[in-house]
Amino acid sequence: MSEGYYGRPIVKPPTWTDLIPTYFFAGGLAGAAATLAFAERTARNDRLARAMIFGAAAGCAVSAFCLIADLKKPERFMNMLRVVKPTSPMSVGVYIFSAFSGSVFIAAGSEITGVARSAGRFFEAIAGLIGPVMSVYTAVLVGDTVMPAWHLPRKTLPGLFAATSATSAGAWGLLFASARDNGSARRLALVGGTAMVAVLQALHHEIGPAQAQAYSKGEAGALARSARLLNVSGIVCAALGKDSNAISRIAGALLLAGGLTERFAVYRAGCASAKDPKYVLEAQKSN
Amino acid sequence: MSRACPEPVEGFIDLTSAAAESATYGAEERDRMGFFTDTTLCIGCKACEVACKEWNQLPSDGYEFTGESYDNTKELSGNTWRHVAFVEQMEPERDTGRWLMESDVCKHCTHAGCLDVCPTGAIIRTEFGTVVIQDDICNGCGYCVVACPFGVIGEKQEDHTMGKCTLCYDRLKVGEQPACAKACPTESIQYGVVDELRERAEKRLEKVQQKFDGAQLYLNDPNDGVGGGGSLFLLLDKPQVYGLPPNPIVPTKDLPQRWRTAGIAAAALFGAVVLCAVSRR
Amino acid sequence: MGTSFGRGGATTFQQDLQNSDCIVIMGSNMAENHPVGFQWVMEARERGATVIHVDPRFTRTSAAATKHVPIRAGSDIAFLGGIIHYILKNDRAFKEYVVNYTNGPVLLRDDFKDSEELDGFFSGWHADKNGYTHETWQYKDMDTHGEPPDTDKTLQDPRCVYQVLKRHYARYTPETVARICGTEPQHVIDVAEALCANSGRERTSAFCYSVAWTQHTTGVQTIRGAAIIQLLLGNIGRPGGGILALRGHASIQGSTDIPTLFNILPGYIPMPHAHAHDDLKDFIESEGAKTGSWGNMDKYIVSLLKAWFGERATEQNDFCFDLLPRINGDHSSYRSIMGMLDGTVKGFFCIGENPAVGSANSGLHRRALANLEWLVVRDFSEIESASFWYDAPEIESGELHTESIPTEVFWMPAAAHAEKDGSFTNTQRLLQWHHQAVEPKGEAHSDLWFYYHLGKRIKEKIAAQEEPFSDPIAFLTWNYPEKGETADPDAQAVLREINGWDANGRALSDYNGLKADGSTACGCWIYCGCFKDEVNQTARRKPGSEQSWVAPEWAWAWPANRRIIYNRASADPQGKPWSERKKYVWWDEEKAEWTGHDVPDFNKTKRPDYTPEAGAKAEDAIAGWQPFVMQEDGLGWLFVPNGIVDGPLPVFYEPHESPVKNALYSQQANPCRQQFPRTFNESNPSPSDAHGDVFPFVLHTYRLTEHHTAGGMSRTVPHLSELQPEFFCEVSPELAQLRGLTHGDWATIFTSRAVIEARVMVTDRVKPMRVDGKTLHSVGLPYHWGSRGLVTGDSANDLLNITLDPNAHIQETKGLTCDIISGRRPRGKDVPDFMNAVRTRSHLEGQE
Ligand SMILES: Nc1nc2c(c(=O)[nH]1)N[C@H]1C(S)=C(S)[C@@H](COP(=O)(O)OP(=O)(O)OC[C@H]3O[C@@H](n4cnc5c(=O)[nH]c(N)nc54)[C@H](O)[C@@H]3O)O[C@H]1N2
Ligand SMILES: Nc1nc2c(c(=O)[nH]1)N[C@H]1C(S)=C(S)[C@@H](COP(=O)(O)OP(=O)(O)OC[C@H]3O[C@@H](n4cnc5c(=O)[nH]c(N)nc54)[C@H](O)[C@@H]3O)O[C@H]1N2
Ligand code: SF4
Ligand code: SF4
Ligand code: SF4
Ligand code: SF4
Ligand code: SF4
Ligand SMILES: [Mo]
């Protein structure tokens, strides 16, 4: 017979829809994008900064939609704001997200309209500073669950989220800024993309071969393999396409797709590790 | 007297809302109440399941034949707060054997993952030390579902909020025992003050162990990964045989470290961006 | 039970099981079907008692027992015989009890011949009449002088019951029994030894049974087997002992006490027979006994007639005895069904039952209902018995057509127990009152309302006619206080009439107060006392924690609030408790009365050494040491000289349908069983017949905790339906392999009556049997499903055959034959085709 009790899950997989990994993707992108916007602004590369703050805004808009849509009743989002709960990464995250997206929207709004420019810049700076936290807190959020595939990579999962966010933000820059302006984005995409591949390796190592199956088998595995293909081709294009707008855009698109796919791979891995009781049993054996 | 507010245990984050919220009950705080489910007395009648649904007016979960012994309930869910597990273990020659039955329920953990992570404060620790979801506050975010080491919580499809055993908070309030315990004909479900239940469970184990090798108490140890359960169990076999995690740990246990690691990752991300931005050619 | 001890009810109560040292649950799945009572078995187990479950399947009861013994369905008499053999062979009987309290020492007539001598028949068999005459079964010299029979207190005389018993059971050795039952000899020995070791002065054992004993063509004899064991081991009338008949429906005990049966009046007074009972005197003389409690028959029947006919009943008119209906044969439920098919029964009240699903051969029942002129169904929902005319399986298969069914169906909603006042009489003869909690919804009314107002209307119509034939109804007292808008009659007033009143109209306090002169009225003599002191005793609810463990102040038990009956036997002949540990009722010399934890089931002041004078009547004829006060001789009957039609001792016969030959006698099945051979009630051939191998598997049916009987009350409830959503069959892995059945998939099961389908549950809990060197497989079916409700499925009862126990007219539902194949069953017109092929294969076309 199958393991455990008729092979039934010991812990429950998330009730979430695919909006949630989409949120991780969009939020991660927005965070890193805002930081890059801020850095570029400081380095007086306004064109890239502009592209990046719009990227951050787009990411925030998608994120907000995902979060609220997943609750099915939008007004319920407000329930989150009735308490501040340090033990809940989601509660903490809601405030991070609120502060961050608020800042981003003000900055982007000012960027478009030209109104209240200095306030815009101020909030752009704020967003830039919160950005990395925005990108990474979701790793804590999923890490603080009993899905073995999320819970066990204590050290590497935040790194993976950071790297993926960096890649996606860089990719955004490659896609929406001209080759002339997107140097920093390209570098960020290259650094992020390479880190992503490396951290994934480390993650598999951290959780060991038995648990790593959650990442390498089934739908999660297929997604991970597609993500790797997309990312590696994206990196190659990004590296080669330095002077070509077209190749840069292709690189950007590939890496964006790679990042999104990677998010889904991680998400599915978590679900898989909940649905098959062997992961929980294996994890708790070694504990 | 056992206070409803569980003492903080070393290694757990001290900010647990368990401690914070329960402390607010002040004079209204009651003895910590819970269950001792003695599976050696369970006859698998499912009266507990039915009593729970009747009392809490929960709808059926659908009509599916599983073929998994006499268990068509399958698992705890948003609308099923008691679940009786059936495990057939016949000896090879099959004249004798065991048919293990266990009535599962929320563990009302001392360190409750669900409560820790709930972002709305919908999940509270009551004056009885029990863990209750207030369904008018729950926003359906689903975080508690993935934070429970026992897979207890599920979604109520009707309104997309989450459901689980309330330890019959409404009945406790008026001095009644929970519906399931009341319905159980064999006292397999014993309701009472947790400290007393622990003592009783230990005595019972001594007796049962003489006959059954594998007999063990589950969630009786305040030093286990969830700080012990408000509902404890006497099992005749390994927890996983009944679909229970052998070594549950509240996910928030290492939350501070997680934030620290995340902080490093965020800093690295910031650094990387800045480096990329300054290292222009 | 009635024939062995004197009363047809459980001898003990469920709470008393906690005092048992050994409990044998056999023919019952107590944990699943009586879970609340089962807590006392668990309590006994926790106190160290041995709990044995004998059942073909390993059930939830087996799981809680200390030992499970699998046996083949229908082999119980052999198994019990094995235990009796063991007791007698090893001289383990409780001699003092046997010698003083049973008819073990009584000598039998010389011309009595045992079934061992006549190959499965007793003396007195008349093949032409398919029945016995009983005179050779009588005690020696009884008919010559009306004195106590001859006895041999040493139990040595070869004609004494004890020695007859010994010879009767000589061949029921553990080995033989195990071969018949498909079990191990060691199991027989273990169970017997556990019983012996836990009986005697210091210890007691109890038996629990239910319908897996009664629903056989040998049902009554199986219970007799247990009675013999318990009498031999001295376990009747003592705490922790007894035989607990576990009843079914909430008030099934009540419905035999105040019967829905055709052949008895309230309180087990026989129904008068046309011709045999011309007048009251005749009746009392032939049906009453000279000695024992039945010696007061005149008081019981006259008081009953006074309750029914009131002022109209006078000494001059024989208290209206004439107006009672008369029976002239078998008018039992199944006989009436045959009448419907034959067109002789034209109308039918179907109240509180669902024969289209719940009765054996439900297909035949549906055909019978479809042949009526009118049918009244009162139930909570439109059950299958009300909807058959448009959704029966026979309509789908084209065998019946809605247009051509003449039955006019009146479906009326009924109020449930929480919607009305009333009482339940439960398994342990306990009357418990329930108060109305809510008003019935919509058009629903209580059954009492229905009968009362129906009666009123009939009386009105009849009053106009003033014909003599209308007297039985016109004379009936029919005036209960009415309550509320709906004019519901007051249920307590009915209970008070059942209790009865004296000449001054005051409620009687027990049946000793009944008179034969017409000055008392009592609707049911055994219930007399339930309204003692003008208080509804059945509504008492003093918590158990505030009284002794016997809890005499919780509700009220018949007779006279006794919880363990025949409890005089809990003391030795001198009236002292057998042991301190098993003290219950004893003689208090100082007060010169019987006293103890319970109401003594004995004349309170009758000394233990009281010896009746010659010619003493009724209870005066019972000696101070004779505990079975209902019996003419005050003794427990190991051997039953009268009152039972198929033999004074239990004999092992194969079920009516069986895949094996009777290993003990050439007589295959109970020769007295009641059969109804006809189309759609064909019998599967058994081995000694031709083609006896067409149905190779044993079929038996049972219940699940999650559902109730025919399902009208559980398949309509979501919280129950989800727990067992589908009809399934339980089979062993071996049978699954043999027939290619896949767990969770479908199987088709058929007999010569019907073909049905069920989901397959392959489980190790079912074990193939080795019967007489052959491997025998069984198919187990819960019978709760039908075509309506939240969860639907085929009805197991479609498969069954109607063949009955000759005493109780109960059908054999446990132990028939069938075949099983993989996959779903045929549908529509393919059904009759399939069935024709089956009947051809078993050469049954011509069976009529
Ligand atoms: N939950 C629930 N409780 C009920 C009912 C219900 O439908 N559901 N029905 C009520 C009613 S009306 C009644 S009458 C009682 C009946 O109560 P039970 O008599 O306990 O009912 P069954 O389940 O029909 O049969 C009991 C057992 O007999 C076994 N069996 C079958 N054939 C044989 C045989 O030949 N010999 C022996 N020794 N065992 C055999 C079956 O495997 C089964 O486990 O339950 C009452 N209680
Ligand atoms: N194969 C097989 N067949 C069996 C048995 C078996 O073991 N095997 N067991 C047999 C036994 S022991 C029994 S008791 C029968 C049971 O068989 P049935 O008596 O035919 O079945 P139930 O479903 O109990 O039917 C009772 C009906 O009464 C209704 N009812 C309940 N309370 C009230 C009320 O207060 N008033 C009115 N008017 N209606 C009410 C319920 O809704 C239900 O529909 O089945 C018998 N048939
Ligand atoms: S068992 Fe799960 S749902 Fe219950 S208190 Fe513990 S964490 Fe919460
Ligand atoms: S789903 Fe409801 S109870 Fe669960 S964590 Fe979210 S808000 Fe709290
Ligand atoms: S305590 Fe109440 S809510 Fe919890 S399982 Fe029991 S009956 Fe249900
Ligand atoms: S009510 Fe008690 S005996 Fe019945 S299944 Fe539940 S725990 Fe077991
Ligand atoms: S259903 Fe009623 S009668 Fe049957 S066990 Fe439960 S409480 Fe007792
Ligand atoms: Mo029954």
Quickly list its features.
heterotrimer; B: 281 residues; alpha+beta; Alpha-Beta Plaits; 2 domains; four-stranded mixed sheet; two-stranded antiparallel ribbon; 8 helices; 17% strand; C: 848 residues; alpha/beta; Dimethylsulfoxide Reductase, domain 2; Rossmann fold; 4 domains; five-stranded parallel sheet; 29 strands; 24% helix; globular; binds ligand MGD; binds iron/sulfur cluster; binds molybdenum atom
Structural class of chain A: mainly alpha
How many DSSP helices of chain A? 10
Output the CATH class name of the largest domain in chain B: Alpha Beta
Order of strands across the main sheet of chain B: 8-1-10-9
Low-confidence stretches of chain B: 5-19
Count structural domains of chain A: 1
**What CATH architecture label of the largest domain in chain B applies?**
2-Layer Sandwich
Task: Describe the protein in words.
The complex is a heterotrimer of chains A (287), B (281) and C (848). Chain A has helices at 19-42, 46-70, 89-113, 117-143, 148-151, 156-176, 183-216, 218-240, 245-275, 277-286. With 287 residues, chain A is an all-alpha fold. Chain A has one domain: Formate dehydrogenase/DMSO reductase domain (Formate dehydrogenase/DMSO reductase fold, Up-down Bundle), CATH 1.20.1630. In chain A, helix 1 (19-42) packs across helix 4 and helix 2 (46-70) crosses helix 6. The mean pLDDT of chain A is 95. In chain B, strand 2 (83-90) and strand 3 (97-104) form a beta hairpin. Chain B is an alpha+beta fold. The termini of chain B are far apart. In chain B, 58% of the residues are buried. Chain B contains 8 helices and 10 strands. Chain B has helices at 17-23, 47-56, 113-117, 143-147, 169-173, 179-183, 194-209, 255-278, and strands at 33-38, 83-90, 97-104, 123-125, 131-133, 154-156, 161-163, 189-193, 216-218, 231-235. In chain C, the strands form 10 sheets. In chain C, strands 22-24-23-29-21-27 form a 6-stranded mixed beta sheet. In chain C, strands 3-2-1-6-7 form a 5-stranded parallel beta sheet. In chain C, strands 10-11-12 form a 3-stranded parallel beta sheet, with no helix packed on it. The model of chain C has no long low-confidence stretch (mean pLDDT 95). At the A-B interface, helix 1, helix 3, helix 4, helix 6 and helix 7 of A face helix 3, helix 4 and helix 8 of B. The structure holds ligand MGD (2 copies), iron/sulfur cluster (SF4) (5 copies) and molybdenum atom (MO). The site of one iron/sulfur cluster has 14 residues of chain B, from helix 2 and helix 6. Residues 26-29, 33-34, 54-57, 59, 73-74, 76, 210-212, 246, 248-249, 700, 702-703, 705, 707-709, 814-815 of chain C line the site of one ligand MGD.
